[in-house]
Amino acid sequence: MLDPETTRQSDLRGGEPPWRDEPHFPPPRPLAGDGRCGVLVVGAGITGALAAQHLAASGHDVLVLDRGRPGFGSTAASTAMLQWEIDRPLTELADLYGFARAARVYRRSFAAADGLCGLIDDLGLDCGMRRRRSVFLAADTGDVADLEAEHALRRRAGLPGSFLDHGALRDAFGFDRPAAIVAPGSADADPLQLSLRLLRAALAAGARLHAGDAVAYEQQGRSVLVGCADGRVVEAGHVVLATGYVMPDFVPGRLHRLVSSWALATPRQAPGQLWRERALVWEAGSPYLYARTTPDDRIVVGGEDDERMVEPADRERASSAKTAVLLAKLRRLWPAAEARADHVWSGVFGTTADGLPLIGPVPDRPRVIAAYGYGGNGITFSFLASRMIRRLVAGGREPWFDDFALDRDGA
Ligand SMILES: Cc1cc2nc3c(=O)[nH]c(=O)nc-3n(C[C@H](O)[C@H](O)[C@H](O)COP(=O)(O)OP(=O)(O)OC[C@H]3O[C@@H](n4cnc5c(N)ncnc54)[C@H](O)[C@@H]3O)c2cc1C
């Protein structure tokens, strides 16, 4: 099991994703002395970057600390499909929580994906973001009735999308599967560029970024004193824990579990060899398969999640077998692909029993807000978290925040 104190970024991911590094991103310096700020954001991955940018742009005095390289935790391993479809189908979520609550969560996720794309456009972030439709495939004929039920419930919830049978799917996208739901509202991007450019936007809005390893948290009056491994102390009005999958022990983790996931990127495909619209593809099934393309014409496929292999050495050992399975599945999905692996990587995924993220104040520590457990929908939920966090820091809250509470009753 990964230990919050000793886990380092290199434990969260391995291999070489195809994302663009930014060699000129200034390495954060340690704090020169003790610090003070309105909001301390611990962790400079996509969650910390989104929260810091939003808080700083709203006038808060923000300090961001990271004990490693900003963006190089799980964020750098992400395949960055920016989707609103949640890991748990709406039908399953409705069985669990009732239709009204499940539909509300799905609509929030839809709005979050849209809001994220709007933010990228508004800030002019050069991160390769491309709006995309998603194609949710039935893996075999046994899945068709489930897919039809999912489509009907999504329509009832006011969510967009069309159901395509085998023939319509073949004509529209060329996939040889029994059926699919095709829906607008998603996107893809380079996750490293997205998080680093958001951090730059946060810095431009007045946030400060430093190197630091937060190890102790103590409430004192209306402040939280955060002790760092080098002995520095930061006094903050609020603390945002954006530490990814290594939360401190006092954050409830009952619903949370770690999963490893594998991904690869092919060489550039020949002109005309990619599927129409370069849509995002998600194939139902266990284990599931997903695929996207990159602006330089590679295919990225991922999946093969495994809960038993979160230790880096186990993940590394499994890598070539997982790669072989992903390539075989790619050949079956898209026979025209040049199915070789140019980049192979893996990373740790945090997921929850009900498929919803954990976002909100830590019980008994109202000035400490945690955001994690996003599952495969991570970046969309990080955006949602940033909006909730700003509201919580301002002393507000909404009844629907309970849907994501750290101590909710979940399956
Ligand atoms: C293979 C793979 C594929 C994925 N694909 C997708 C996808 O297609 N779409 C999607 O939306 N999501 C996807 N995800 C999930 C997504 O990547 C994550 O949800 C997201 O990156 C989490 O970001 P984060 O900022 O919360 O965590 P991280 O990126 O891990 O950042 C946490 C940061 O906190 C720092 N930190 C930790 N502890 C401390 C401390 N005590 N003091 C200071 N700093 C600390 C770390 O150094 C790190 O930089 C995928 C994940 C994996 C592994």
| Content of β-strand | 25-35%
CATH class identity of one domain: Alpha Beta
Number of helices: 9
Largest sheet: 10 strands, mixed
Radius of gyration: 21 Å
Fraction of helical residues? 25-40%
CATH fourth-tier homologous superfamily of one domain: FAD/NAD(P)-binding domain
CATH architecture of one domain: 3-Layer(bba) Sandwich
Uncertain segments are none
Mean pLDDT: 93
Structural class: alpha+beta
Number of strands: 18
H and E string: HEEHEEHHEHEHEHEEEEEEEEHEEEH
Report what the structure shows.
- The chain has 411 residues and is α+β, with helices and mostly antiparallel strands.
- Among the domains are: 27-78 and 192-255 and 355-404, FAD/NAD(P)-binding domain (3-Layer(bba) Sandwich); 257-277 and 287-352, Alpha-Beta Plaits, CATH 3.30.70.
- Helix content is 30%, strand content 28%.
- The protein contains 9 helices and 18 strands.
- Strands 1, 4, 5, 6, 7, 12, 13, 14, 15 and 16 form a 10-stranded mixed sheet that branches.
- A hairpin with a 2-residue loop joins strand 9 (214-220) and strand 10.
- The chain starts with 8 loop residues before the first helix and ends in an 18-residue tail after the last helix.
